[in-house]
Amino acid sequence: xxxxxxxxASLLMAQAPVNSQTQGRGPAKGAPRDxxxxxxxxxxxxxxxxxxxxxxQIRAGESRFxxxxxxxxxxxxxxxxxxxxxxxxxLVAEDNRGDKIAPLLRVGRPDAGMPAFKLPDSELxxxxxxxxxxxxxxxxxxxxxxxxDPGDLATGNAADGxxxxxGAGGCTACHSVTGDLAGIATRYEGLxxxxxxxxxxxxxxxxxxxxxFTLASGQTIVAPLAAEDEFTVTVxxxxxxxxxxxxxxxxxxxxxxxxxxxxxxxxYTDSDxxxxxxxxxxxx
Amino acid sequence: xxxxxxxxxxxxxxxxxxxxxRAQAVDPKLVHPPxxxxxxxxxxxxxxxxxxxxxxxxxxxxQLQQVWRFQxxxxxxxxxxxxxxxxxLYITTPDNIWAIDARTAQxxxxxxxxxxxxxxxxxRGAAVYKDTVYLTTPDCHLIAFNAKDxxxxxxxxxxxxxxxxxxxxxxxxxxNHVMVGxxxxxxNLPGQLKSVDADTGKTQWIFYxxxxxxxxxxxxxxxxxxxxxxxxxxxxxxxxxxxxxGNPTPVLNGEARPGDNPWTCSIVxxxxxxxxxxxxxxxxxxxxxxxxxxxxPVLVDADFNGQPRxxxxxxxxxxxxxxxxxxxxxxxxxxxxxxxxxxxxxDALGRPIPDPAKRPSKDGVLxxxxxxxxxxxxxxxxxxKTGFLIVSAQDGYGIYFxxxxxxxxxxxxxxxxxxxxxxxxxxxxxxxxxAWNHPIGDGAGTAGVLTTEAGLTFSGDNSNNxxxxxxxxxxxxxxxxxxxxxxxxxxxxxxxxxxxxxxxGASLYAFALP
Lengths: 284, 514
Fold this sequence. Notes:
The complex is a heterodimer.
Chain A: H1 2-12, H2 55-68, H3 70-73, H4 90-94, H5 101-107, H6 121-141, H7 158-166, H8 184-187, H9 190-198, E1 210-214, E2 220-228, E3 232-236, E4 242-246, E5 252-255, H10 258-265, H11 270-280
Chain B: H1 2-25, H2 28-31, E1 50-51, E2 65-71, E3 83-85, E4 88-93, E5 96-101, E6 107-112, E7 127-129, E8 132-136, E9 141-146, E10 152-157, E11 172-174, E12 177-181, E13 192-197, E14 203-208, E15 224-225, E16 233-235, E17 240-244, E18 248-249, E19 266-270, E20 277-282, E21 298-304, E22 307-315, E23 320-325, E24 330-336, E25 343-346, E26 352-354, E27 365-367, E28 381-383, E29 388-401, E30 414-428, E31 434-442, E32 450-452, E33 456-460, E34 465-470, E35 476-481, E36 490-494, E37 497-504, E38 507-512
Parallel strand pairs in B: 1-32
Antiparallel strand pairs in B: 2-38, 3-4, 4-5, 5-6, 7-8, 8-9, 9-10, 11-12, 12-13, 13-14, 15-18, 16-17, 17-19, 19-20, 21-22, 22-23, 23-24, 25-26, 27-29, 28-29, 29-30, 30-31, 32-33, 33-34, 34-35, 36-37, 37-38
């Protein structure tokens, strides 16, 4: 009886796949500040008023800046041993064509050890141009992880990938391109498809792990696994509730199809990986 | 012959005088810790996390019972190793420190640092010196408290958090030197370890693992980074502090920083009085996978190939186990202790040789270990009786990307962990051979390790269990589900009773025999 219900429950557990594009780990643009993230991984200040400077002005500013300011603020304006990082400076962010920077340069900040600078207007403008261009360059660059474009991954050979899929890779033991993988490239693309191919963790789990109980009579009962550790096995009962068993009280074996994916990670060469990806990308 | 003996005596006398000079500065309790204390992050200077206590044994460990539970009431989990001094436990989370009675878990004082925007990834613990307790803050301040009541003595800035530095560090104290490390991977920042005066907070020296702005030394080939975010170890006889350094920046773009990039991903030996480098050993020359060599440099005095040696052993994040002669940094053994596919071999200096084919690429390379590493911050333990370094290890795979468009600032690339399996793994220091291997679940482990003279190993698994193992073979002897364990358990004896204290989730638990 118990056997029949558990089996029915395991059949009910089959889940329909849903579209789940994996995003990069960097914070989304405009996301609220998250104190568990490095300030450096969050967006930097940008020049509030867009300002256009000629490449020539910026180049001239770069050499003037290096000579006049670089000793304290670093040659790239990102800060030196004594001067702050100007690419994160709120004053620079608020400045429009020198309206905040120029007055400051003329009087300096004697209390903070910054001298006054007497510079001709053209030099001053070029320094302003360089500092804004550096601020915007660093803001665009950020320090966090970068993106992977689908085009970056298109280096494999689909025919070789198919041969690996049907042969050495052993993929057909569980998968079929006309069954579970039919149209896979319409549901996932780029990095998400590559990650799903290598190790389909997360949801939806393509085939949930099973706990196979063997009773004293020799009869076996299969139930969908909810959790396990060294001491307990938790399965879902026919009503979807979790039932925990102590391992010492039952005879149980866990069958997890993901194990084959893990083993495969140790077998792929990088070209196998790119070829199989190229093959799966054709399954539209 | 007689001549030699006289010379030897003179040398011995000089050695004795030198020891005396240092003995005034170095707290002898940190060299030979008393049973009723856990005075520093690792318990003592060696980093072995091995206790002489033997009241709890393999035979009676099954009877362990909870004595108390201290709830921090914070969202942030405990990732710290507690400190016990004068019957008071000090435990931390980012921005927070509590002083609690070690017998009853009653709160004596609590200090909460004002909100700040720095990275709150975790906090590894406090440090104590005489009547002062030290706390690093996420935004890189070091605060000194009166141990008695938690009032602030002073507060100094260790590094500029606005540039992208943050700190999780449990400081190492040698004499009156409080050595504080910082982190910072998202910006191209020089690696720095700062020593401040224990009484005044005044800066004594800064050791740079990569050159500071305008500096030329060390010649890192253009790399920044090499942060020393983990707590080091100390040998009072050699008067050397040993610290692991982190990965270079830009992190995944190796083209921007040709060469080996010293002293990133290295173990460095420093003179604590001057901050000067005495020797360095690179665990990962020219790293392009974020594999810090910040893991604990564990000091072992034992025979190696029949010779009594002063050794340093490290299970490194890159998957290799190293045995060094700590008097000079010379390599004695290099052996993988987890799944690795990134090295072509071992060079004459004992360093793995990175395989260019496994550098991050535009279309991605499949690499073992993954970024979280073959091990990480979680401290291992060395058991002298068996000669095992017991480490929370991971066999894992990740994919790594870099293209020129990713630039040369901060991460400068992308990488993703795919899968991993975790084990508590006993490495025989003599050979690097794996003596036993106990599965602890999928993904990366977070629990550190404690061993005791009774032949017990305490750690945890990835399913919130605190577990006691037999050190000789890894057999499970006791467990208790207490929440995710994110540092190593500690032990001490008070009023004749041995306590096991371990953080689980946001609570701290004490266990003892009934």
